[in-house]
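Format notes (please read before filing issues)

Several people have asked whether sequences and structure tokens are stored in separate files. They are not. Every record keeps both together, in the order shown below: the sequence lines, then the token lines. Line labels are part of the format and must not be stripped during preprocessing.
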Amino acid sequence: MTEHQEPVALATAPVGCLLESSDYGAWYYAHYSVAAYDPAEPYWQSFFGDVASRIVETFRPTSSLDAGCAMGVLVGSLRERGVDAEGVDLSAYAIEQADPRAQGHVCVGSLADPLTRRYDIITCIEVLEHIDAGRVEAVVANLCSATDTVLLSTTPDDFNEGTHVNVRPPSYWCGLFADQGFHRRFDVDASFISPWAVVLHRRQEPLRVVVVDYETALWNLRRENIGTRAAVIERDRQLAELGEHLKQVTASLADADVQRTTEVTQERLRTEEADRRAQAAASQAQLAQTRVEQITGSTSYRMASAAARAVRRVPRPGGRGTDSTGGTPEAPAEPATDATHGSPPPPVGTA
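Then the structure lines:
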């Protein structure tokens, strides 16, 4: 998508650096912006396929010219959809590498050269920024002489590429086309190509009609802008209210968190104190058990226990002792009783 007739000074390059046709050769296309420019590259097949479908759907053209066609991918996509599409580009390298669908329908040439036929539509996608300001008006006039409809896209802000010697805002290009009697069509959205793409159409109506169209578009945009601004203000107010509510909730949660933290801390301290006391009691119990085991295992304790057992075997005063066998002596027999009266019998030898 390039166009120059003669080498021109590069505005952003050092003095004496000139652009030549060879600048749009293999290296240029291999390092093209979003993807290497190649007819087989899926990105370009998809992009230009979509553009071709939208052109056919919107304009129903029978013929078209892609001004600055590069390798003719758009030309091939349009021809695939039944359009008698042609293309022209300054780069001989690009034409040699043309999309097979476009071969024989694209050629090397300058957009300043007179066009030999008319077309239902001319597409010019990211081309005019490559043409220096001294020649671009003639190119615009040449395109307008061969059609009534131009689909135009030219970057308003890409200064990074060295060959972009004439980057301008959309208003600049619309002014050049207005000089040729072409004005924007507000009923067609060309953003399927780029955010700045426009459809420019030859208008033969009275100036009043053109002014009405522009003013209508301007009013609609202004009304949308006012509505959007009001919505933004209302949103900001709601966000401010939500922000205050969030502060209150955050503060409340912070207080609750502090209280909860205090309660948890106190409970932890109580638990730790209880654990400490339990451990102290267990230690004391263990020490007591150890002491008992030491006492019961000592010689003194065993001797004392043996003495205590011996003492328990000695008779108590006034108590019953033990017999010679170690048993308890028998108690005296109770006197017998009379079988008749139940009283004891009289003593023997008494009268």
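For reference, the curators noted about this record: DSSP finds eight helices and seven strands in the chain. The chain has a mean pLDDT of 84.
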